[in-house]
Each structure stands twice: as structure tokens, then as C-alpha cells.
Amino acid sequence: MSDARDDRDSTGPLPVRPGPASPGPASPGPASTVPVSPVTVSTVPVSTGEEWLWLSPRSLVVRPVTDLLRLLPVLIGLLVFGSAHGSGGYWGIAVAALAIGASVVRYCTTRYRITAERVYLRHGLLNTKVLSVPRDRVRSVDLSAHVVYRLLGLRRVQVGTGRNDRREGESLHLDALRLADAESLRRTLLTAPRAPAGGPAGAVAGDLAPGTTPAGPQPELAAGPPGPAERELARLQPGWIRFAPLTLTGLVIIGVVVGAVLQFVDATHVNVIAVGPVHRVLVRVGTEPAGLQILDGVLTVLVAAVLLSVAGYIALFWNYRLVSEAGGVLRVSRGLLSTRVTTIDTRRLRGAELSEPLLLRAAGGARCLAITTGLRVGHGAERGGSLLVPPAPRRVAAQTAATVLGTGSGPLTGDLARHGPAARRRRHVRALSAAALVVAGFLAAGLAGAVPGWAWLPSLALLPLAAVLADDRYRSLGHRLDDGWLVTRTGSLVRRRSVLSAEGIIGWRIHQSWFQRRQGLVSLAATTAAGRQHYVAHDIPQARALALAAAATPALVSPFLDGSGPEPGPPPG
Amino acid sequence: MLPGLRDPGNRVSRRAIGYWTARAAADGLFLLVIEAVIGAAAGLSVIWWLVLPVTAVISAAYALIMPRWRYRVHRWEVTGDAVYTRTGWVSVHWRIAPISRIQTIDSHRWLGERVFGLANVTATTASAAGPVHIRGLDRATADRLLEELTVATGQIAGDAT
């Protein structure tokens, strides 16, 4: 889905509410003015009355060290193989020097400030930009660190707001703070009272400099890091690593490694094929019969994929812990070398999604993602930020999700209402006609002489395959309404069961194509500000769709129902 | 249209039929010109004597049928609590969005719409899954609607998520 909201800012001449103002510190309370978007950008410094804080000076070192590490293969290539012709290496060094200069400028011009109501970030050399976010719009705080950051004791802080169409330059991130400062900032932003009560207490909360203990009467603030209010909901079990090869991570890593090797070859002009061991292996394989060569290739890729996916799983999810903190905050921490700590405000949590890629599903595993406003699935710097449980036994993923959402097991594991024979027929018709089209294509190409005349025969195998896929896709389809949770499930290659709180539903979309109309089906989508932005029940019988929508949000939908239609059958779920 | 779901109360302006017809006709002409240019460049063969009239007939049928069909489908309604629309022609879309969750209201007048005295109103919500469009309104209705919705949404506090 393309970002439809992008239209708004560029073309919207008539915003509903007064445009983005930049309220000074004198602003009486966070609820007095509500800008249309939570992030406001102004070109004038907001105020100089309060203390602006700097990033950690150590962050100056990050960029040069990272670049040096990135250039290391090239440098080694130059030194060891002495292949210095070509200017690629020098270009790389020049670019690195420029990047270092840019990072110095960025460090010197970046400041941040936290007041009782807002978080400010100021940056830019010539055009000073000030981003500010009301603190009650902060949905998540994400601390991440790759190896260099960890060696220097730094963390990159990403503040997640409800804005979905965040553009480069408007994201609120601090790159980087000392670990202690980052931790205390995280705590301040997510556990301090959002709406300071009038009077001195509110004023004291104003200038919480990271690194200092919050002072003043703030009853909701957790005492210290390992407080008794912390509750561990899940942690990595070594046995979960068995699910690693069932994800596609291994193949992705192979791609990355191949890309890196090619880049290395390109930069150093080293003839990898001529290097001793590689050459010997290639010569030996070259003398084998063709069948064995293919077998060798497949086995190599398979073994490499398994090993790399296990390594990838460990690198990403080692030390994985899901902790419920005081003040209704969830903390997900993970990572072996590069670490990541994501904090999610449960007040922004609208549900959870169990995702089961085919192989993982076959082995009884599942991942779990949070459906949270401000963490849009698979977007930008927050990619992966919504992960609640890494690939793990389905039972564990479901239980953890149920605990996090505070529901029974019904929404996550309970049986779903099927969508009926018409939906099944539609799945089959769609899958088979796609397969038939491919077969027809081969047949036509064969008649035209573009491919051998028998080539369409093997493509016939697509037909039973399509039927199997269609049947599985039908069996995945389902819905349920359980105690205010709308549950929908869809997909075969990646089956997703999403559990969305009815309170998080901010609208409905019903779509009926010509073919669906003939079969009495519709696709019903609940739109939401969280996660994937809409969750769809595909090919659901139309009467059932209306009953489901009306049951989930009676006040919104029932005014538009009339009694003329057929009785909407038994209540769903 | 969908048993059990009542039609939104208002039709769009009748002038929208003219606007849609003009657009469909323009698209058809554009297609014909492209085909003619390609045909001329490739050397006019028999195929183009076949393709051009077929395109012309299909475009004409589209320009005649689509706008009238669309006019019967397109409907909208704004109640105190929600915006409710129906759009499309062969495929039909319904959209319900609570006014309490609307974040911005826009109105657009493209050149073509201005010629026909039309306007549209777009309401976006906190969900990126598609704003609600009401297209083909006459200008006075659009202005009134814009005013009403702006007042209605302005009264609601919170961040509408």
C-alpha cells in the first residue's frame, strides 16, 4: 500500500486545525492545542531559555571507525594482494573523509531538549530545523547499537511517534547517546507522567536531563532499573534455534555475502577464482559429471543456508527478553553483537499478529508482532521494531501474545469461523486460472517455436500444485470476534493471524468486485492507525461481514444497516 | 446494492456524468492518437485498420456506459458521527470512517472539475490505509461539507488514533 497520506501535506490547503505551531515552554498543558501531525518542524529555534543537551562526544568516533571497518577489506586487498591499480580505493577513502566531515558538522549542530510537554531536536548547519513532539505522542523508544556503538558504550535512540508517513530528516533520532543517558531518556519518556498536574510538581518534571535521577513527587515513576515491578514474559530458549533454518534468513545472508565478495573483487581487482584453495575446489568440481556438479551446488547452498540462518538467528535474537515494566511498558531486548532494545507503551498497543511462514508453520513455529500505533510494520528505521517473539513454538508465541494483550487464549488460538464454500470456490478458481494461464503461455510459445514443443507438459504440474495452494489458502481464511478482539487470518505461504482490539478500529472498508458480487462475498477491512494499517477478512459472506463489523463497532456501523437484507445468521466467533 | 447495508443518503452532482464522460473520451482519444502514431511509424499495415476502429468502439462504449453506471453507484452521507461513502462501478467500495478519527479535511478542484463546476472532499484518518474521498460534488455542497466537517472534527480533542 503506497503512502496515501503523503498527499496530505503537499496539497492540503485547508487543514482542520490550526497549523503546526511551536508552543514555547509557557504552554499551559499538552491538551490545549492539538496539531494535526505530532511532529512539527519549524525553522526558528523554539526557545533558548532551557538547557539544550548535546549528543555524546564519543559519537564523533562512530562514523570514522565504522567507515574504516567497511574499508578494511579494500585496504587488506590493497596491502596483501598489492593490486593498487584503479582508483576505486581512493574514491572510497575520499568519500569516507567527506562522511567524517559531515558527522563532525552533524555532531556540532545537533541538540535536544526535553520539557514537561515536548521533546525537541534541533539540527542543521545553515537551515536550523527544530523538530518537536508532544511527549504524550511518544509511542515507543528504540535503543539500538551495532558493534562499534557497543565498544564505545553508545546507543542510538529512535523515538517513535504516531506519524506514519515520516520522511527522512523528520524522524526523531539521537545518534548517539551514552548508554546510561539513553536508558534514562527511555525511562523518562515512557514512564514519567504524561500530563503533569498543574503546580510545582509539573514544573519540576520539566527539565529532566538524562543521566540525572528524576526529582520531585512523581508517584508513577518506577524506582530503579531492576525494580520488583519488572516481570519477564518470555526469554530465548536455546531449543528455539531449531526454527532458524526454516526461515529464509540464510538465503538472504548468502545474497549479502555474495554481494560483499563481488564488491571486494570490484574494488581490489583480485581474481578470486585464481586464489589457491578456491581454485583447487573449482578444478576438482569441474572434473565431476554434470549431475554430481548440480548436486554439489545444491548441497553447498543448502548447508550454507542452514549454517548462516542459525548464525543469523543467534546474532539477531540472542539474549532475547520480553519484559513488562512498571507503568504499562513492554521492553523487548535482543541481539548478540548488535543489540536492540525496543520499548512499547502498552497504551498504544492495539493487538498482536501471529505470523507463520510455510516452513515454520509445518514445524509448529510462529513469530509474533505487536500491532502498535507508531510502529508501522516493515517501515524505515523502525523495521523489526514491532517484533514481540522471534520464531518460537507456536504455543509460546500465542501464550506470550495473550499475556501481553491481557486476553484469554481464545483470540490467539481459538477456532475461527470459516468463510464457506463460495470462498473456497473463489480461491480455487483464482489459483487454477493463474496456473492455466502459465500452461497456455507455454503451449503458445511451443506452437510458435520459442520453446521446445514438449515444454508445456511439465508445466501441467502447476495445476495440482495450484489446487493444493488454493485449498490451504481457503483453510487459512477465518475470522472471529472474541471479547472485543477482531481476529482475522489469511495467507498460505505466510499465514497471518491478527488480533486487533475493537477500540483500535478507526473505520471500515468493504470491497466487492464483480465476481464477488455474483457469489455474495465481500472483502472486509478494518482500518487502524497501528501495524499494517488495515486488517482484512477476505471473501467473507456479505451478511456475515456486516454482522461482524456491526458487532465489533456497533455505534459506528449500525446506523448504516437496514433490516431489508437476509438475517445475518449466527453471530460470528 | 449490498443486502443489509443501506445506501448512503446523497447522490453526487449530475454534472459529474459530463465530467466523467469528458475524461473517458479524452483517454480514448489519447489512446487512438498513440495507436495511430505507432501505426504510422511502423508503416500502416492491415492490423491497424482493425485495431483503430475496435479501440474507437470500445472507448465510445466506455465513455457512454461508465459515467452513468458510476453515477448510480457513487453516493455519500455525513452523519453526526461518521462519513459513509460508496464508490466504484464494476467493483464497488464502501467506506465508513468515524468523524472523531478524522485528522484532516481537504478539498480539491482540478482544472477539469472546475470546468464542470465540481469539487471533491477528502478526509484522512490516522490510518494510512486510504483516506475517504467524496468526488463529483457540486461546488456549493463541497464548501458546505468542508465547513461542517471542519467544525465537527475541530471539536474533538486527542490524537484520533
What topology does this entry show?
The complex is a heterodimer of chains A (573) and B (161).
Chain A: H1 6-11, E1 40-42, E2 53-54, H2 59-80, H3 88-109, E3 111-114, E4 118-123, E5 129-134, E6 140-145, H4 147-152, E7 154-160, E8 172-178, H5 179-191, H6 200-204, E9 231-235, H7 249-268, H8 276-286, H9 290-317, E10 321-325, E11 329-334, E12 339-345, E13 349-357, H10 358-362, E14 365-372, E15 387-393, H11 394-405, H12 410-413, H13 421-448, H14 456-459, H15 462-476, E16 478-482, E17 485-490, E18 494-501, E19 505-512, H16 514-519, E20 521-528, E21 534-541, H17 542-552, H18 554-557
Antiparallel strand pairs in A: 1-5, 2-3, 3-4, 4-5, 6-7, 6-12, 7-8, 9-10, 10-11, 11-12, 13-14, 13-18, 14-15, 16-17, 17-18, 19-20, 20-21
Helix pairs in contact in A: 2-3, 7-9, 13-15
Chain B: E1 10-11, H1 15-41, H2 46-73, E2 75-78, E3 82-88, E4 92-98, E5 102-108, H3 111-115, E6 118-125, E7 132-138, H4 139-154
Antiparallel strand pairs in B: 1-2, 2-3, 3-4, 5-6, 6-7
Helix pairs in contact in B: 1-2
Number of extended strands of chain B: 7
List the helices and strands of chain B in order: EHHEEEEHEEH
Taking all Cα atoms into account, the compactness measure Rg of chain A is 28 Å
Instruction: Report the sheet-strand fraction of chain A.
Output: 15-25%
Radius of gyration computed on alpha carbons of chain B: 20 Å
- Helix fraction of chain B, binned, reads 40-55%
State the secondary-structure class of chain A.
alpha+beta
Main beta-sheet annotation of chain B: 4 strands, antiparallel
Poorly predicted parts of chain B = none
Widest β-sheet, arrangement of strands of chain B? 1-2-3-4
